[in-house]
What does this fold into?
Amino acid sequence: MAKDKMQFGTKAIHAGVNPDPSTGAIMTPIFQTSTYVQPAPGKHQGYEYARTKNPTRTVLEENLAALENGKFGVCFASGLAAMDAVIKTLKSGDEVICTNDLYGGSYRLLTKVYSQFGIQSKFVDMYDVSTLAAHITKKTKLIWVETPTNPMLSIIDIAAIVKVAKQHKVKVIVDNTFASPYLQNPLDLGADMVLHSCTKYLGGHSDVVMGAVVTKSKAIADKLYFIQNSTGAVPGPQDCFLMLRGIKTLHLRVDRACANAKKIAVFLRDHKKVSKVYYPGFKDHPNHKVAKKQMHNFGGMVSFDLKKNSLTAANKILKSTKLFALAESLGGVESLIGHPATMTHASIPKEDRLKVGLTDSLIRLSVGVEDVTDLIEDLEKALK
It folds into this structure.
């Protein structure tokens, strides 16, 4: 069956994956090699050096491309390495317009690294797309979107952003890490590229660090493959094998995480010590209708703020959970609790954090696949 005819759960398991022709092994082998024997100089079987290509990585890249309804997948050693490769397609004097609620590592890469090389960034509230055009200049070459955003879970209308970008001949990339390809497919909405920190939902077991970019454009893919090979920030075959293993259960894990997150969001909203819950599934969440239109479900992430707006109040809860582990990252089978202001977003100046509502008492949950009654009991005890 052609991969474009498969339903998502089938693609997750079968797209790009075939039994090993030499042994019949149903799992893609780990090709743990750095080089490949050539029968004659310059003649090879598609592989010459493992930085350039590796058969395990090739299968993963084809699988990821299929999940995002793209044509080309390009894997990197981390999500930030993937972002780094995309920014390297620009040149000095170019400008990137970014979502103003952005992962701290992405913000750091743009403001602390690439600003030194003459690539400037603007951080814009994209909730109201009608204001975007006013920020675009002749220097603007790329619009960087996160949706849902990290950690405020703001929803941005991808199709509307693309419409404005095309009018100005600007490319759009969407960081789809929070949604995963199971819940949202930005390429179908017109985006030029979609990026993942595969470390999160795609891997799903908190044991691999990896990033990827998927596109339908051969021209974009060729640039990224060139950068991938030239700079060498590639994942190893063992990691690619583990990623393929994780992807096979992506739809099952995300379904459970979504169901758990919805119940936890309702519990928190009714709690007397909680002032606000950020969850796209609530009808009064900003741009809820957009989320309903462009996502298949509302995700496994929930953020909430406390009525006692202080770091001390947040710390008491963060130190008191037993099942929710205090750790960075997200998207694994286990539930995690985090404090963006001092953890994932510490690199963003406080005044910029506060502009988007990221207070010192904001807590972010990555809801896992445990029994939801146990998770709610854990939060209830911590809030007490």
Q: What stands out?
A: The chain has a mean pLDDT of 96.
